[in-house]
Write a structure and sequence with these properties.
four-stranded mixed beta sheet; 32% helix; 435 residues; single chain; 21 strands; nine-stranded mixed beta sheet
């Protein structure tokens, strides 16, 4: 036997002896001895505690029976939880669909969106999540109540690359329409777009959005002016007809028609004429009665033996004071008469032959202590409505009513007269011109 064999046998004998020694120690020391009866008891108590833990349910047994075809389809179908659509939301969506149909005419309305693939099928409730057609052929999903989670939106956009999701409620106004129009696929969208027509008078408009559907919209008179703000009067029909003739199509929500505002202010056009005719028209507007070609007698000078009677072109009384209109082209005599009349407490207004509406009205209003200046005025602020009228004239507080009184000699178009009258002005003395 060689030495390698002897070493192998010796190792085997030592290993056997060590195992026997360990077994002997385990048998001699009861701490290392396993009691099978106690082990079974502990196993039973652990199982009992697990059974009594709250919220734990036993797992169902796996069945070896294969799923049917209908069951497999149901397992692969992802259905969004049903949403309760409020009546106000339904009304808002109806208004939005109507508005969008006018904004993007000729495109068929989208039905319920349903996506099918090998691994899933996804459908959207058209009442809660309506779909609008975009101008570039895409689809716009209105998620007003933010029901779609980011993973679902990502899933939709992977299947429909040209779909866009608007996670905003229509009641948010500008925020909603800004996102909607950005997703609309239009060639150009410009917010707060200003428009001007004419010089003096001038019609000013501000559209909430100007929209060009295609690059040729401007040449094809297919530019849209979109108004979305609620709680205001719709644009007058005369204005929408005028804008259509200028190449602009007005689109706005179906606002209820209302009667024009009741007349409160006054718009007065002084017709062309000579200086004293203009003065007569102005004084009639202020409710002043004039005496043409009057002789003014001053009896206060009689005790001194002086009898004085002065003939003037117009004489009148305003707020208890006497006034006289005298032609200024009488030279030195006019200056002398003015001094005499003023010495007797009469306010004299000299009117030259070349004086026009602006000068005559300015002189008279200053003499009557109604200081206003001739300027270009907007008859009402542009913020009150999407349009206003601007023209030259005098804007003052009506002494009789305390409301606005606008005086002008500018010719006014029928369209502007309609807009002015519809905005609470009583229009008198106007002549017409073409815009």
């Amino acid at each position: 036997m060689d030495r390698f064999t002897r070493w192998g046998l010796s190792g085997l004998i030592c290993a056997s002896a060590f195992i026997a020694f360990i077994g002997g120690v385990s048998a001699l020391d009861h701490r290392f001895e396993l009691n099978t009866r106690e082990l079974d008891k502990k196993r039973g108590s652990v199982a009992e505690r697990k059974r009594r833990l709250p919220g734990r349910r036993p797992l169902p047994l796996k069945s070896s029976t294969p799923l049917s075809a209908s069951t497999a389809e149901t397992e692969s179908l992802y259905r969004l939880p049903p949403l309760t659509v409020a009546a106000s939301d339904r009304a808002a969506m109806i208004t939005l669909r109507t508005l969008w149909k006018r904004l993007v005419p000729g495109l068929e309305p989208e039905g319920a969106l349903e996506l099918r693939a090998e691994s899933f099928t996804l459908s959207l409730d058209p009442q809660a999540l309506p779909v609008l057609p975009a101008a570039d052929g895409g689809k716009i999903i209105i998620d007003a109540n933010r029901a779609l989670s980011p993973p679902i939106i990502s899933l939709i956009q992977k299947q429909e690359p040209f779909s866009r999701v608007i996670s905003e409620h229509p009641s948010s106004g500008d925020r909603f329409y800004a996102k909607l129009l950005k997703a609309g696929g239009f060639y150009s969208v410009e917010p707060e777009f200003p428009l001007e027509f004419g010089d003096d008078p001038r019609l000013l408009l501000r559209a909430e959005y100007r929209i060009e559907r295609t690059a040729d919209s401007l040449f094809n008179n297919d530019t849209v002016l979109l108004y979305t703000a609620a709680g205001r009067l719709p644009l007058p029909r005369s204005l929408t007809v005028f804008l259509a003739g200028a190449g602009f199509r007005v689109v706005e929500p179906g606002l209820p028609g209302q009667a024009p505002l009741p007349p409160r202010d006054r718009f007065v056009q002084i017709l062309p004429g000579d200086r004293f005719q203009v003065a007569d028209a102005l004084l009639r507007t202020l409710g002043v009665v004039t005496n043409a070609g009057a002789n003014m007698e001053f009896t206060g000078l009689l005790p001194q033996g002086v009898a004085l009677t002065v003939r003037v072109e117009r004489a009148f009384v305003y707020n208890g004071k006497r006034y006289a209109l005298v032609p200024a082209d009488a030279g030195q005599l006019a200056s002398s008469l003015r001094g005499v009349l003023e010495s007797q407490g009469v306010t004299v207004v000299l009117l030259a032959k070349e004086d026009d509406f602006r000068i005559v009205t300015g002189k008279l209003l200053q003499a009557l202590s109604l200081p206003v200046r001739f300027d270009r005025y907007r008859l009402w602020p542009l913020g009150e409505s999407p349009y206003t009228v601007e023209m030259s004239g005098f804007l003052l507080r009506d002494p009789a009513t305390g409301h606005d009184l606008f005086l002008t000699d500018r010719e006014v178009t029928p369209l502007l007269l309609d807009l002015i009258a519809g905005h609470g002005y009583a229009v008198t003395g106007a002549t017409l011109q073409r815009l």
